[in-house]
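Human: If only I could read backbone structure tokens as easily as an amino acid sequence. Take your time, and here it is.
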Amino acid sequence: YQDEIRLIKLHHGQARFTVAKDSQRPFEVHSDGLSVRALGTVFDMYNPETGDLRVTVQEHAVSARLLAEDNPGLNENNPAVLINGGQQLHYRGGLTLPAPQNSDISQLTAWQQRRLFINNRPLSELIAELNRYRTGRIFLSDAELGNLRVTGVFSLDNPEDTLHKISVGLALQSTRLGAWWVVLHR
């Protein structure tokens, strides 16, 4: 925090911010070339280290813009994008920001209640999310398993129980390699 700005750099992970408006000291979050400025709001930012940033606004609005110093070739007059409550911006890189999309905020913020909503997504995405909440790593034996489609609401309070339910529901076997690694296979 400085006299003229409140700035956080999010290297990876997910964080929720509840921000009081202060025109003398704006609040910004920078992550992988994207700057998000709070306009008196509640929002979260997710950087899973895959070049796939997501900004979800629960209340009020934020403005997002690309940082010229992190994006070579970017026009200095790049416009900011306004993201209102109930919307999400999904930035996958490049020199332009996409338009924000209306979203189901209850599903996108379920992680704050230690739940995970997955709606017709690949198993690989579910495993990647579950890996964030458990010690060790879960691996899939082949890419074909990662493409299996999954829908459900999963508890993050007990990741081992959730892993067991996934295995049973998809008729998968799990092999433990020591205390930390689990391989899912047929």
About this structure: The helical segments are 105-108, 123-131, 143-146, 159-169. The mean pLDDT is 90.
